[in-house]
Amino acid sequence: MSHANPFLGDFALTKIRGVAGAFVGAGQWLVGDGAPVHHAFVYVGAGQVVQAMPGGAELIPLEEASPVVAWSTGRIPLTTDQRFGIRDEARSLVGTPYSFLDYASIAAARFHVRPRLVRDFVASTGHMICSQLVDEVYKRAGVHLFDDGRLPGDVTPGDLWRLVK
Question: What is the CATH number of the domain that holds 96?
Fold first, then answer.
């Protein structure tokens, strides 16, 4: 399912190896999201991607990113303007802080026990995990990936996986 030549604005899904990957995979399994991917990033052209990381969202060369399991290439129809919008929005989020609390909030939502205080706090922090970053840049560019009534930010790598598998 991997695609060697992504187009501007495509997103990728990857598997994280080692302890971090095992931790993310276990967390996803616990919330009923046992997808074979753990991480997502956006291709912004010129061989570069934007990805959310614990130190903040970063712009890095594609070759330094985790190996791609699947690209959204050809699975999400995008206009040229949307592709440039996705690129611009992704670049504008470089430096955005990361929050492990967002994982807890998404897990609570999956179990239908998330207090409004937690939901509102997470929504107001401006922090993003990888899948939230992908969803947000698409939304800002006018592309709504999910129309199932979920709150903005309630997106896991597994949710993105189900869009492109």
Answer: 3.90.1720
pTM: 0.86
Burial of 149 (0-12, 13-18, 19+ CB in 10 A): exposed
Answer whether residue 33 is part of any domain. yes
Q: Compute the distance between CA of residue 21 and CA of residue 37 in angstroms, rounded to an integer.
A: 9
Show the domain range for 139. Answer: 11-164
* Strand ranges in the chain using DSSP code E only, listed in sequence order: 11-14, 39-45, 48-51, 58-61, 68-71
Question: Partners of 39 in the beta sheet?
Answer: 14
In tens digits, the chain (165 residues) has pLDDT values of 455 689 999 999 998 877 777 777 767 776 667 788 989 999 999 999 999 998 899 999 999 999 999 999 999 999 999 999 999 999 999 999 887 777 677 777 777 776 777 777 766 667 888 999 999 999 999 999 998 887 777 888 999 999 998
- Whether 75 is in a domain gets the answer yes
Determine the 3-state secondary structure of 42 from DSSP. Answer: strand
The number of folded domains in the chain is 1
Residue 32 neighbours by CB distance under 10 Å: 11
What is the sign, positive or negative, of the torsion defined by CA atoms of 113, 53, 41, 136? positive
Q: What is the DSSP letter of 104?
A: H
